[in-house]
Design a protein that fits this description.
- The protein has 12 helices and 6 strands.
- By secondary structure, the protein is mostly helical.
Length: about 260
């Protein structure tokens, strides 16, 4: 298999299988990427390159964007500390035994050599602790197209608080920490899950040439109501026309869509 291929099926090399675990069959069988766990997909991505390089041009724009990210995320974190503590307490009460924060491996902007960059993205917990383990049983209920997974009435959501914080994207606020440390930007394509990225075609992979973001054109308009191809269209349009003024416009649009709560579930 070519290094820059983005197949829907793959055969994991034996040396990678040893890293992933002791399941011998896992290393020898060809499996659809959609059937992998995110942890398994992350191991595979670490052995691959995308076949394209990130866009590291426009130094002035990127410097201004980074400065804005640091200042804005710092101010927002300071402002939201007290509300975040209250929400954390509510989540712990509604979902006993689970911490208020949840993290996942996500795929960020490609490294300089075209290899995949993975990082841990943070969220407020909106689902029950074993939500990931329940996913296989819910696959047939998926309402999203492409490699994404979405259910309007997801049974894994924590009763009372989960649906509200997802509707208004409050669960995404801990990603301000990812913005502050440089994993993400305030505006950019949303970071995909490793198992989703393994299923990208060449066009979708272009999303990874820009730093991923908390919000963007997709979030300020259709949100979860968009199709996968619609999301790609929004993201590529942003990558091709990004500017400081466009970023500010999208920040305002994303905040407005959070208050409206439409299109998110």
């Amino acid at each position: 298999m070519a290094e820059d291929a983005m197949p829907s099926e793959w055969c994991m090399p034996s040396e990678v299988a040893e890293t992933a675990g002791d399941d011998a069959s896992f290393g020898r069988q060809t499996r659809p990427a959609a059937d992998l766990t995110n942890e398994e997909a992350a191991v595979v991505l670490k052995t691959m390159k995308a076949g394209i390089k990130p866009d590291l041009s426009r130094y002035g724009y990127r410097a201004v964007k980074r400065a804005f990210d640091v200042v804005a995320s710092t101010c927002a974190i300071a402002l939201l500390l007290a509300p975040a503590a209250i929400l954390s307490a509510v989540i712990c009460i509604k979902s006993p035994g689970a911490g208020p924060l949840y993290s996942q491996f996500r795929v960020g902007r490609l490294n300089r050599d075209g290899s995949y960059r993975l990082f841990r993205m943070w969220k407020f917990r909106s689902m029950v602790p074993d939500a990931d383990q329940m996913l296989d049983k819910l696959k047939d209920l998926n309402e999203a197209d492409g490699p994404m997974f979405k259910i309007r009435e997801d049974p894994r959501i924590i009763p009372g608080v989960g649906k509200f914080i997802r509707k208004h994207s409050i669960d995404e606020l801990p990603q301000l920490l990812n913005v502050f440390v440089g994993d993400m930007s305030l505006i950019g394509p949303r970071p995909g899950l490793p198992k989703e990225v393994l299923q990208y075609d060449e066009r979708a992979t272009r999303r990874l040439t820009a730093k991923c973001g908390c919000g963007g054109a997709w979030q300020s308009k259709d949100r979860s109501d968009s199709s996968f191809d619609g999301m790609i269209d929004y993201d590529l349009e942003y990558i091709d026309h990004s500017s400081v003024l466009y970023d500010i416009k999208l920040v305002a649009g994303t905040v407005a869509s959070m208050f409206r709560g439409a299109g998110a579930y």
